[in-house]
Structure formats: structure tokens, C-alpha cells
Amino acid sequence: MIYTLIDHVQQKAKIVQACRVCGSAAQATTAARQRAKEPAICVASVQVKAAFRANQSCYGSRRAVDELKAQGMVIGRYKVRRLMREAGLKPV
């Protein structure tokens, strides 16, 4: 909460003052920003990888969408294609 408040301050001199008022270090504010930038694990990408590997790495985006729909997950073909490309999954 404190880091969110300090993050709204734009100028460096004001950041230092805000840190002093809140009782935190400027390095902690920078570390909080770095933690916020780390990508979160996408549930869809995990399920796409699992469906891909469960079918001997031979499913492309179209068949993977059908597999995921059978499991009850609603996802579009182009999103599956993008997630497969980002994960480096290429059908054999």
C-alpha cells in the first residue's frame, strides 16, 4: 500500500520525501516496482502446454482448442496460437 502511494509521485526529489514520510527506503520502492513487473503465470498457457504434451506434441492450435473446449475451457484459436508460439510449442 505504501509503495503504491509512493509510486504516484513522479519526481525523484518528491519520491525521497514521500519515502521519509512513510518510513520506507527508496530501494524498497524500486524493488516493489520490479516485483510488480514480473509476469504472472497465465492459467491458459499452463493448460495449453498440458494439452499439447498430453497428445504427444502433435496438436496444433485448432486441435488444441477443441481439446480445451472438451475440458470446459473457453479460449479462442488465435490466443492458443499465440500462447503456443510464446512457449515454443511446435507440433510434430
Please describe the topology of this protein.
Blueprint: H1 2-7, H2 12-22, H3 26-37, H4 43-54, H5 61-70, H6 77-87
Helix pairs in contact: 4-5, 4-6, 5-6
Model description:
- This protein has 92 residues and is mainly alpha-helical.
- 67% of the residues lie in helices and 0% in strands.
- It has helices spanning 2-7, 12-22, 26-37, 43-54, 61-70, 77-87.
- Helix 4 (43-54) crosses helix 5 (61-70), helix 4 (43-54) packs across helix 6 (77-87) and helix 5 crosses helix 6 (77-87).
- The mean pLDDT is 79.
- Please estimate the helix content: 55-70%
pLDDT under 50 segments (min length 5)? none
Oligomer description: single chain
Main sheet attributes: strand count, strand direction, barrel closure: none
Number of strands: 0
Question: Domains counted in the coordinates: how many?
Answer: 2
Q: Tally the helices: what do you get? A: 6
Distance between the termini: 48 Å
What amount of the residues lies in strands?
under 5%
Mean pLDDT: 79
User: Which structural class matches the secondary elements?
Assistant: mainly alpha
Task: Characterize the overall form.
Answer: rod-shaped
Reading the helices and strands in chain order gives HHHHHH
Q: What is the CA-based Rg, rounded?
A: 21 Å
